[in-house]
Amino acid sequence: MEEYRSLYSFTLEETYPSDYLVANYFCSKSPYSIFTRKKICTKPTPEGRITLMGKELKIRQNGEVTKTVIEDDKEYDRVLKDYFDLTVND
């Protein structure tokens, strides 16, 4: 079973836009970043989280995880609309 793990810590130190430049550049431009290699859409819900990564839809609700493989573009577009209220224009 998948478990949540603490990955982040936070402080009250002030940050500036320049603090994010390198990380933002890497995430948006690097061929090693997952954000340039896969389509990703995710949102929190009251019960958990819905994530569409590549062709896999993962729905986490109340500690349970359901995974579905998206078979074609029509189904992919339907998932975007039904779960994220997004419409893809041709």
Automatic annotation (TrEMBL):
<dbReference type="InterPro" id="IPR001447">
    <property type="entry name" value="Arylamine_N-AcTrfase"/>
</dbReference>
<dbReference type="Pfam" id="PF00797">
    <property type="entry name" value="Acetyltransf_2"/>
</dbReference>
<dbReference type="InterPro" id="IPR038765">
    <property type="entry name" value="Papain-like_cys_pep_sf"/>
</dbReference>
<comment type="similarity">
    <text>Belongs to the arylamine N-acetyltransferase family.</text>
</comment>
<protein>
    <recommendedName>
        <fullName>Arylamine N-acetyltransferase</fullName>
    </recommendedName>
</protein>
<dbReference type="GO" id="GO:0016407">
    <property type="term" value="F:acetyltransferase activity"/>
</dbReference>
<dbReference type="InterPro" id="IPR053710">
    <property type="entry name" value="Arylamine_NAT_domain_sf"/>
</dbReference>
